[in-house]
Design goal:
By secondary structure, this protein is of the alpha/beta class. It has one domain (5-228): NAD(P)-binding Rossmann-like Domain (Rossmann fold, 3-Layer(aba) Sandwich). The chain has seven helices and ten strands. The strands form three sheets. It has a six-stranded parallel beta sheet with strand order 3-2-1-4-5-6, sandwiched between helices. Strands 7-9 form a two-stranded parallel sheet. The protein starts with a strand and ends with a helix. Bound molecules: NADP nicotinamide-adenine-dinucleotide phosphate. NADP nicotinamide-adenine-dinucleotide phosphate binds at residues 10, 12-16, 34-35, 38, 41, 75-77, 79-80, 84, 105-107, 163, 165-166, 193.
C-alpha cells in the first residue's frame, strides 16, 4: 500500500507540532501549512515534511497543500477578526479530495446539537473571553462557531474534535470521548495537549468518528477512570 499523505493546517502551533510528530511516527507523508513568520517553528521537522507557508484562510494556499492528501488535520483557531476560522474551514471543505478524512480541532464551547450541558463557570468564562476578544480585536469566537456550523452541514467525511481544558505533559494515551459536554465521563475537564493531537491523528483511521463531534478528556483523569471502572 502506498504511504498515506496527510496535510496539517496550522502545523506550527503547539497542537500542530504534536500532530506533525504523531504523523511522522506513523510514517505518513506530511505537508504542513503555517504562517510565513512561523516557518522557523518547524525547523526540527523541515527535512521530513513539506512546508507550505501562508495564511490558512488563503484558498490558493490550502488548494495547493491538500492536493493528493488522504487526510487533512485542521487546527481551527478563533484568532484574528477577518473570518480566519470560517475561511480556513471553507477552503478545506472545498479543496480536500472527495474521499479524504478531514478532522478539525476546537473547544468544548462548540455545540453540534445544542444538547451540551455547560457549568455556570464555563459559560461565564466563554462569555468573558468572547467579549474581551472582540474588544481587543484579537479573538473571534463567533467565527469559530460559524466554521463549525459549515462543517456540520457538510457531507464530507469530517470529524470535529472538541478539546477540554489543556495541559502540557507526557502522553497518557488516547483520550476518551462522549457526545455531550455534561456527560459524567468528561467531568474532569482536562486533557494533555499531546493526547489531543493523538486523538486527532487516530481519527484519520477511525471511520466510527465520521460525522461525530467527540468531546474529549484525558484517559487517566478521575472522571474517565471512574467511568471505565464502574
Ligand atoms: N488552549 C486551550 O486551552 C484549548 C482548549 C480547548 C480546545 N482548544 C483548541 O485547540 C486548538 C489549538 O489550541 P492551542 O491552545 O493548542 O493552540 P496552538 O496549538 O498553539 O495553536 C495556535 C494556532 O493559532 C495560530 N495563530 C496564533 N495567532 C494567530 C493569528 N493572529 N492569526 C492567525 N493564526 C494565529 C498559530 O499559528 P502560528 O504558529 O503561526 O502563530 C497556531 O497555528 C484550537 O482548535 C483550540 O480551539 C484549545
Amino acid at each position: 500500500m502506498s504511504k498515506k499523505k496527510v496535510c496539517i493546517v496550522g502545523a506550527s502551533g503547539k497542537l500542530g507540532q504534536y500532530m506533525v510528530r504523531h504523523c511522522l511516527s506513523r510514517c505518513y507523508e506530511v505537508v504542513g501549512v503555517c504562517r510565513e513568520r512561523s516557518v522557523d517553528k518547524l525547523e526540527v521537522f523541515k527535512d521530513r515534511m513539506t512546508i507550505v507557508p501562508g495564511a490558512t484562510n488563503d484558498r490558493s494556499v490550502i488548494q495547493q497543500a491538500v492536493s493528493g492528501c488522504d487526510g487533512v488535520l485542521t487546527v481551527l483557531v478563533p484568532w484574528g477578526v477577518r473570518q480566519y476560522s470560517s475561511g480556513t474551514a471553507q477552503a478545506v471543505l472545498d479543496y480536500a479530495a472527495p474521499d479524504a478524512r478531514i478532522v478539525f480541532s476546537c473547544g468544548w464551547h462548540i455545540t453540534r446539537d445544542g444538547h451540551d450541558l455547560y457549568s455556570p463557570s464555563f459559560k461565564r468564562i466563554t462569555k468573558i473571553a468572547a467579549w474581551l476578544g472582540r474588544l481587543l480585536g484579537a479573538v473571534e469566537i463567533d467565527d469559530q462557531v460559524e466554521a463549525c456550523r459549515r462543517i456540520f452541514a457538510s457531507d464530507r467525511r469530517w470529524t470535529v474534535v472538541r478539546g477540554s481544558d489543556l495541559e502540557e505533559g507526557e502522553s497518557q494515551g488516547l483520550p476518551v470521548w462522549s457526545r455531550h459536554v455534561g456527560d459524567p465521563i468528561l467531568a474532569s475537564n482536562m486533557t494533555r495537549r499531546v493526547d489531543f493531537a493523538l486523538f486527532m491523528v487516530a481519527a484519520l483511521e477511525d471511520d466510527g468518528l465520521v460525522h461525530e463531534a467527540p468531546a474529549i478528556v484525558g484517559c487517566r483523569t478521575a472522571s474517565a477512570l471512574a467511568f471505565l471502572h464502574s
